[in-house]
């Protein structure tokens, strides 16, 4: 019996020692995993902190972080090479964002950085010339109200543009009657001012956008407006006369009369399109809305503007919440932007 008791005691001690050893191993493995996790977090954070690039003179945009979803903008001057295919999971449908005139747009994620990859559509009306134009223009354009180009790729028939990711869709979706939450007047004002600043920067740098419209105005959850899609942009020499183009490009409903009819393009063609966008922010209507009875939005609005029948212009969704003085100011600005005579239109200054 004593022998059996000693054996039981020994077995108990071994079991206890085994448990302590297992617990120690488990703790060690847990610490190893925590250390690996910490190292991974530090590595990712280092990549995020390096979004500026290597130049110490680079700056951060004022609107660098979305306060709602915490999406971070890259810092001014940041560029790097991407493995596009891996970052977008082979351009899978679950990464698909939208379809534009240039091609399909997919979301990519790499080391904590979200970005948008625009995959060129070889059958697109916009071809190699427009692709090179967009790369040339966007590589120089750096402003808090412009979508920043991060990189590009052109190999054979594969042409890709990589932009910073903007977290809250485009303005047209927020103005839609199907939008879950209509834009308040305050947010519409903020978007209009942001778009104006972005366009002003382009014009100061002798760049004409040529496709200013809500689809190309991307919005953050803070309702910061970023002007994007420069596939049709072109440069204009300072103080030069409006140039003539044999092929009119852009979107119907936003084309200035002199551009649509005679092919004359200048910064004032952008101003006209900006006036149409303001009209959409005021009315909440599309340029070819059913309520317009077959007319264009501008054609429908001109008599109301001339008669100063402003109440009939206002989007019913903001009828009780708009600021009367700000609304009057926006309507007057829109009216001057939409002048048929380009010389009478406002500038973006």
Automatic annotation (TrEMBL):
Residue ranges of every copy of the Protein kinase domain listed in the record: 91-349
Any one GO molecular-function label of the UniProt entry: ATP binding
Family matches, as InterPro entries: Prot_kinase_dom, Tyr_kinase_AS
Keywords for this protein: ATP-binding, Kinase, Nucleotide-binding, Serine/threonine-protein kinase, Transferase
Spans through the membrane: none
Region (Disordered): 1-42
Compositionally biased residues, Polar residues: 1-16
Pfam families for the chain: Pkinase
Superkingdom classification of source: Eukaryota
Compositionally skewed regions (Basic and acidic residues) per UniProt: 28-42
Protein name (record): Protein kinase domain-containing protein
């Amino acid at each position: 019996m004593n022998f059996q008791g000693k054996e039981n005691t020994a077995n108990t001690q071994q079991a206890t020692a085994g448990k302590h050893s297992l617990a120690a191993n488990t703790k060690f493995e847990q610490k190893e995993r925590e250390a690996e996790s910490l190292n991974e977090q530090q590595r990712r954070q280092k990549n995020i902190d390096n979004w500026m690039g290597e130049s110490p003179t680079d700056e951060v945009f004022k609107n660098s972080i979305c306060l709602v979803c915490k999406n971070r903008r890259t810092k001014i001057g940041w560029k790097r090479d991407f493995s596009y295919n891996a970052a977008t999971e082979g351009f899978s449908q679950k990464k698909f964002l939208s379809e534009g005139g240039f091609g399909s747009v997919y979301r990519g994620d790499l080391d904590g950085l979200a970005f948008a990859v625009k995959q060129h559509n070889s059958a697109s009306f916009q071809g190699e010339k427009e692709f090179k134009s967009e790369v040339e223009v966007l590589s120089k354009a750096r402003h808090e109200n412009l979508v920043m180009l991060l990189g590009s790729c052109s190999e054979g028939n594969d042409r890709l543009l990589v932009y910073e990711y903007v977290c809250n869709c485009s303005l047209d979706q927020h103005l839609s009657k199907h939008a879950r939450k209509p834009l308040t007047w305050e947010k519409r004002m903020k978007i209009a001012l942001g778009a104006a600043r972005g366009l002003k920067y382009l014009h100061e740098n002798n760049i004409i956008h040529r496709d200013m419209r809500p689809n190309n105005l991307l919005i953050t959850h803070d309702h910061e407006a970023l002007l994007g899609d420069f596939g049709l942009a072109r440069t204009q020499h300072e103080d030069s006369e409006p140039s003539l183009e044999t092929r009119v490009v852009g979107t119907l409903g936003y084309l200035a009369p002199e551009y649509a009819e005679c092919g004359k393009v200048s910064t004032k063609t952008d101003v006209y399109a900006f006036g149409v966008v303001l009209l959409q922010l005021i009315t909440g209507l599309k340029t070819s809305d059913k309520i317009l009875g077959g007319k264009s939005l501008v054609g429908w609005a001109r008599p109301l503007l001339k008669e100063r029948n402003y109440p009939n212009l206002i989007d019913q969704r903001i009828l009780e919440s708009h600021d009367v003085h700000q609304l009057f100011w926006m309507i007057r600005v829109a009216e001057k932007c939409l002048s048929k005579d380009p010389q009478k239109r406002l500038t973006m200054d």
